[in-house]
Design a protein that fits this description.
alpha/beta
Length: 328
């Protein structure tokens, strides 16, 4: 079987991870590494026996697909150029910095008949895949995603950097868009929002509380889901899913007994980045739509942008309160 020829565009921290995963794949060959910094491209390419390039123009006819791991602001330009050259694309999340550019990117994929997958990586976490199989009628989410501070991805707010993973999962599980959004956030170590708390309410009454921070003293990634007669607790990092179930046993002339059952869901641990690549390669070969498609990623981005709007509204209220005469 001929291996698919892949390029990684962007040789930063996450781009280098993509290079490693492609190199380790039995189905793909890392043909080229592209970066505007020639030294960085050469360093990453040399590790995996690939060609180093400073722009994407030399990829036409040389690769079947590409992974775009450049700053979000360049996603549309880079991914569109690749698709115009007949190359399928997996672009990192968020799909683009705004909804209009996301729409143009989706249109370009359709016009050129290209696969456009978006890197919402947690959707390929084995514990999340099991959660998707177990979810019935989600009624309440409590989600925490905390990171220690890193200079990576400071071109976007924590909502687009971290929280968007969980927003994407909540939208996928509820199969709906939020009806009401309440949000607050503050900037501490960067010029963008570094910590945010959000409450999403859906038309069926489901509520999701999400907290994300990139200035925490520890790394935390946990999701708790409540649905009829069940509580599911997921740890993204450990890739485990605990399920607590409540049953009903009616006894004659006795109060209803509600036994509580516990199950540690069977989860085969694996690296989500590798599972994401395998899914992308499947789409390239079969031409089937990806699990994380352009339209679904745009929907997630729309919710994230609405959250940022609500954070801005809240910040303006706080500013007016301070201007009214608050004193230490």
């Amino acid at each position: 079987m001929n291996k698919l020829r892949l390029a990684v565009v962007g040789a930063g921290q996450f781009g280098r991870n993509h290079c490693r995963v492609v190199h380790e794949s039995e189905r793909a060959e890392l043909t080229a590494v592209v970066d505007i910094d020639p030294a960085r491209a050469s360093e990453a390419a040399a590790l995996h026996g690939a060609e180093a390039l400073s722009d994407t123009s030399g990829l036409r006819g040389q690769v079947d697909a590409a992974i775009v791991a450049v700053p979000t602001s360049a996603h549309e330009e880079v991914a569109t150029a690749l698709m115009e050259a007949g190359i399928d694309v997996l672009v990192e999340k968020p799909i683009t910095p705004d909804l209009d550019s996301a729409a143009r990117l989706i249109e370009a994929a359709g016009r050129h008949g290209r696969i456009l997958q978006v890197g919402h990586l947690e959707r390929f976490n084995p514990a999340v895949l099991e959660l998707e199989r177990r979810a019935t009628l989600p009624l309440f989410f409590e989600i925490h995603r905390m990171n220690v501070f890193s200079p990576r991805s400071l071109d976007v707010d924590v909502v687009l950097d971290l929280m968007i993973h969980d927003v994407d999962i909540v939208l996928a599980l509820t199969r709906a868009e939020p009806q009401e959004i309440r949000a607050a956030g503050i900037s501490i170590l960067s010029g963008k929002v570094d910590i945010a708390n959000v409450r999403l309410q859906f038309p069926n009454g489901c509520v999701a509380n999400l907290t994300a921070s990139r200035i925490s003293t520890e790394r935390v990634r946990k999701l708790r889901l409540f649905q009829p007669q069940q509580y599911l607790s997921l740890d993204y990092g450990r890739q485990d899913l605990a399920i607590f179930s409540v049953g009903e046993v009616a006894q004659a002339f006795q109060p209803v007994v509600r036994p509580i059952g516990f199950e540690q869901a069977p989860v085969t641990k694996a690296e989500p980045l590798k599972l994401q690549l395998e899914s992308f390669l499947d789409c390239v070969e079969t031409r089937n739509p990806p699990k994380c498609s352009g339209p679904s990623a745009r929907q997630t981005l729309g919710a994230a942008m609405a959250i940022l709007d609500k954070i801005k509204e809240h910040s303006e209220v706080v500013s007016r309160t301070l201007a009214a005469g608050w004193k230490p």
